[in-house]
Amino acid sequence: MAAPAFVEKLNEQLGHEFGAHQQYIAIATYYDALTMPQMAALFYDQAAEERDHAMMMVQYLLDADADIKIPALDAPVMDFADVVEPVQLALDQEKRVTEQINELTRLAREANDFASDQFMQWFIKEQVEEIAKMSDLLAVVTRAKDNVDRIEDWVAREEKAEGSDPTAPPIAGA
What is the C-alpha separation between 62 and 64, in angstroms, rounded? Predict the structure, then answer.
């Protein structure tokens, strides 16, 4: 059985993950409207990944026989000043999620909830990758903000489709 404090915080995290999903959809549609299909595709993919993270957490709560509470979400930011702002927002969001994942891990460890601690390890690795990805993207978008074709070319060249990760937790409903 998962520690009660961990379960409560993981239910909160569901909201953060679903919120990130919606924010990435908003960012993707912003780039889609600017006819930047590479950036749009990158963020549509990011949105799907955030949804999958939430559904991994749902599956873990189901497996732990814990209550699941899907929180209400605030509306995502939809308006951006320029092509840099959405990526900065994404990087800031990933940094916040990293803090939240670390807090969940701390709670599991303090409660000697070894199963929950082990569950969180994949997310820790994932957040290192997400921050690196968004940091690189922010550097490129900042440098090339006046030439969206350069941004699109970089994304097309550098962004590779991720294969499935056999170490990833199972996704509810998958």
Answer: 5
